[in-house]
């Protein structure tokens, strides 16, 4: 018995020198004879009907939009009804929906009409999934990684939620997509920061946005939404037992608000941020960051505005608002702040990103220590040579 790589569920056998094809959904289903050979019009039509369950034996799932039982399309519909999906924020849902829809519309074979939407999940194997991911990997590694994650969500439905396949039959187990560390949104060097500050004086929207991004380490959405009502004054007992009156921004991050309400943040206002906020009009309340007309910026507009402001300062493209958040993390690591404290200050949900900041800062410290050791060693050698020369002269 031979299987055809482009027709999941189809297999052939040779009788008296002639090849016959059949379709079988699973080992418990009955066989359906397929006329002709793969590629023939009659074969294609019959195979399509068999896959779609139009044999009189298949059940039609009563869900918005017709889907085939136990298919990837069925898994996608089921995924959207799970509590795990509801926990994702809208941006994450949208990203995954787009990737899943792209996968569902992929043909099983470019020359045939069957797409993965109508294929039962159990027909996916590691070789087929690897071919899909490698095809994307050739043009965009990041998209390939995200696509694998999206498909894994459908497989999770099939394994954990609906029990269509067993965990050991997960075709994604052996597939890993590793991407190089991103060079996008780099931290702003001191020279770049000074150039920006020189061009945009305190009191301008450009400088306010920069100050909030750097000295609070906020994400774009939090910067846009931050309000004067979020600025509080509290008496805090410090670790040494003394009391301090602290002005700070207290708010909930936008990220993961659907999942757990967003991380609660308390970020003291440092002196340089206070200086940047001092000339701003607080009497009308509302958002801290406003445009020239006194209106708040939308979250999406800040990306383009920061590019505009950096170009005004003759700064090369690539230094972004999110880059200022990384600058804050790098700055804290260079101040020798403990990793756990950096994680809390930036609102990270894990130590993964925080450890990167600490690791980079330590690499620089180690490099400087090595340079100092080399200079000290060479200075000692030079001193020994000078002493030897003096002894010879005497």
Automatic annotation (TrEMBL):
Keywords: DNA integration, DNA recombination. InterPro entries: DNA_brk_join_enz, Integrase-like_cat_sf, Integrase_catalytic, Tyrosine_recombinase_XerCD. Residues 178-370 form the Tyr recombinase domain. One of its GO terms (biological process) is DNA recombination. It holds the Pfam family Phage_integrase. One of its GO terms (molecular function) is DNA binding. The keyword Kinase does not apply. It comes from the Bacteria. This is Site-specific integrase.
């Amino acid at each position: 018995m031979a299987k055809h790589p482009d027709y999941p569920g189809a297999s052939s056998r040779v009788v008296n020198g002639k090849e016959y094809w059949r379709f079988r959904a699973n080992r418990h289903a009955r066989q359906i004879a397929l006329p002709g050979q793969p590629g023939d019009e009659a074969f294609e039509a019959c195979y399509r009907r068999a896959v779609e369950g139009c044999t009189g034996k298949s059940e039609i799932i009563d869900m918005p939009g017709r889907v085939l039982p136990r298919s990837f399309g069925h898994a996608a519909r089921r995924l959207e009804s799970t509590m795990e999906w509801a926990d994702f924020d809208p941006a994450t849902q949208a990203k995954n929906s787009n990737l899943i829809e792209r996968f569902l519309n992929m043909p099983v074979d470019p020359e045939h009409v069957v797409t993965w939407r109508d294929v039962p999940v159990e027909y996916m194997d590691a070789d087929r999934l690897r071919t899909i991911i490698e095809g994307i990997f050739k043009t965009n590694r990041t998209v390939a990684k995200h696509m694998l994650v999206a498909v894994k969500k459908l497989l999770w439905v099939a394994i954990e939620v609906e029990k269509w396949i067993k965990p050991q039959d997960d075709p994604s187990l052996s597939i890993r997509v590793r991407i190089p560390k991103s060079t996008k949104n780099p931290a702003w060097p001191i020279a770049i920061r000074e150039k920006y500050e020189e061009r945009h004086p305190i009191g301008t929207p450009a400088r306010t946005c920069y100050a909030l991004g750097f000295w609070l380490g906020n994400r774009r959405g939090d910067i846009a939404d931050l309000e004067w009502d979020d600025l509080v004054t509290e008496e805090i007992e410090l670790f040494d037992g003394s009391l301090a009156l602290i002005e700070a921004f207290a708010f909930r991050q936008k990220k993961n608000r659907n999942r757990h309400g967003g991380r609660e943040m308390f970020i003291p206002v440092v002196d340089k941020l206070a200086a940047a906020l001092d000339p701003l009009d607080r009497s009308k309340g509302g958002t801290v960051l406003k445009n020239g007309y006194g209106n708040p910026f939308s979250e999406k507009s800040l990306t383009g505005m920061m590019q505009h402001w950096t170009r005004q300062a003759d700064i090369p493209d690539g230094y972004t608002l999110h880059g200022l958040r990384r600058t804050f993390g790098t700055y804290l690591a260079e101040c020798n702040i403990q990793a756990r404290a950096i994680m809390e200050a930036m609102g990270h949900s894990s130590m993964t990103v925080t450890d990167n900041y600490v690791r980079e800062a330590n690499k620089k410290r180690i490099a400087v220590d090595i340079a100092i050791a080399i200079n000290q060693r060479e200075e000692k050698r030079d001193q020994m040579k000078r002493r030897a020369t003096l002894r010879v002269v005497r």
